[in-house]
Every structure is written in structure tokens, then in C-alpha cells.
């Protein structure tokens, strides 16, 4: 892995990251916001301690563990990635509630345009604020966005000490079972 200086990372603060998205995906995964390394490299969930890619594979969504630079391969599997808040920060604690709410509105519009079968937000706190659902719990939500179901998954960040990669994978697998049970759209 390339080594980046603190100055390199600082320069990525506030940048945005292109979505990995296409119409009619089976699942559009939605992170909180890009980290600095993701913004610097142009790859979602790029920080080595982030467990998104291992959890995605162990849950059965991908046939092998993809690396962040292989993110575009997700489209062929009927999967995509976006973020609630588009701007990169060193940590989600730097985000304001208004950014989450604005991001929630933008996410609604994105879902209306691309029409994924499921929107999977990876972070309960982000979901609660962005969708004004302070009592929401993990899993399938009552809320739908048009025909798109909404599911909340644990945040895969290495900072989320409540989950290890196996418990993350189990939570992600619950969604995969539902997607497969409904008959995943042809990829």
C-alpha cells in the first residue's frame, strides 16, 4: 500500500468521492461520509482498518474479498456505494446534523433516480439523523423510498468496537438472505 503523508491526507479534507452506482442495483450501500484516505485514493472504504470489504465477502455478497481499488466490480454483482454526506473528513464527528439532513434529502433523490431494490445505510447514527428516525434500530426499516426498501447495518469502521468482522458479516448476511429470497435482479 502506498504511504501518504499527513499533508497528503489533510489536502483531501472536504473532497468528494464519486459514487459506484447504476440503475436498478440490488443493494446500494451508503456510508456515512468518505474518510480522508478514501478521498485521496478515490476508493470507498479505503482505510486498512475498515471492515467493509471483508464483511461484504464473508456475508456472501461477493465471491471473494475485493480490495477498495476493485470497487467498480460491485456493479457487475448488482451492488453500489454512496455516502450520506459527500464531503471527506478525518472522522464523522466533524459532521454537523444539518449535513446529515441535507444528505438524507440528496439520498432520497438519488434513490428515486437510480431505483435500487435496497438502500443499506452503514451506520445507525447517520440514519437516525438523516432520516429523522431517532428510535431506529439495526435491520429492516419500516420506511421505504418508493419501491426501495431501507436497511440499517453496523458501521464497518475499525472504530466501531461493538462489532468484529464476523459479527459484521452476520449482520450483512441478514440483508443478503432477504435480497436472494426476493430473487436478486439480473446483474
List the defining traits of the structure above.
globular, alpha/beta, 15% strand, 5 strands, Uracil-DNA Glycosylase, subunit E, 187 residues
Helix content: 25-40%
| Fold-level CATH name | Uracil-DNA Glycosylase, subunit E
Helix and strand element order: HEHHEHEHEEH
Strand order, largest beta sheet: 2-1-3-5-4
Amino-to-carboxy terminus distance: 31 Å
Largest sheet composition: 5 strands, mixed
Question: How many separate structural domains?
Answer: 1
Our estimate of the beta-strand percent is 5-15%
Number of helices: 6
- Average pLDDT level: 95
Instruction: Name the CATH homologous superfamily.
Output: Uracil-DNA glycosylase-like domain
CATH class: Alpha Beta
* Unreliable stretches: none
Please report the total strand number as a whole number.
5
Provide a descriptive summary of the structure in words.
This protein has 187 residues and is of the alpha/beta class. It has one domain: Uracil-DNA Glycosylase, subunit E (3-Layer(aba) Sandwich). Helices cover 33% and strands 15% of the residues. The chain contains six helices and five strands. A five-stranded mixed sheet has the order 2-1-3-5-4, sandwiched between helices. A hairpin with a 2-residue loop joins β4 and β5. The longest helix has 18 residues. It is globular.
Brief write-up:
With 187 residues, the protein is α/β, with parallel strands linked by helices. The protein has a single domain, classed as Uracil-DNA Glycosylase, subunit E, CATH 3.40.470.10. The chain contains 6 helices and 5 strands; from the N terminus they run αβααβαβαββα.
Amino acid at each position: 500500500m502506498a504511504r501518504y503523508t499527513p499533508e497528503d491526507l489533510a489536502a483531501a479534507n472536504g473532497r468528494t468521492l464519486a459514487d459506484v452506482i447504476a440503475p436498478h442495483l440490488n443493494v446500494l450501500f451508503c456510508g456515512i461520509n468518505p474518510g480522508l484516505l478514501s478521498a485521496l485514493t478515490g476508493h470507498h472504504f479505503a482505510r486498512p482498518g475498515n471492515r467493509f470489504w471483508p464483511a461484504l465477502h464473508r456475508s456472501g455478497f461477493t465471491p471473494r474479498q475485493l480490495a477498495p481499488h476493485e470497487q467498480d466490480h460491485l456493479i457487475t454483482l448488482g451492488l453500489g456505494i454512496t455516502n450520506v454526506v459527500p464531503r471527506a473528513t478525518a472522522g464523522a464527528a466533524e459532521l454537523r446534523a444539518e449535513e446529515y439532513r441535507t444528505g438524507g434529502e440528496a439520498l432520497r433523490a438519488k434513490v428515486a433516480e437510480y431505483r435500487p431494490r435496497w438502500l443499506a445505510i452503514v451506520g445507525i447514527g447517520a440514519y437516525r439523523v438523516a432520516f429523522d428516525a431517532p428510535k431506529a434500530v439495526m435491520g429492516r426499516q419500516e420506511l421505504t423510498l418508493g419501491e426501495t426498501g431501507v436497511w440499517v447495518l453496523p458501521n464497518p469502521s475499525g472504530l466501531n468496537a461493538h462489532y468484529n468482522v464476523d459479527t459484521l458479516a452476520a449482520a450483512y448476511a441478514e440483508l443478503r438472505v432477504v435480497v436472494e429470497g426476493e430473487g436478486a435482479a439480473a446483474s
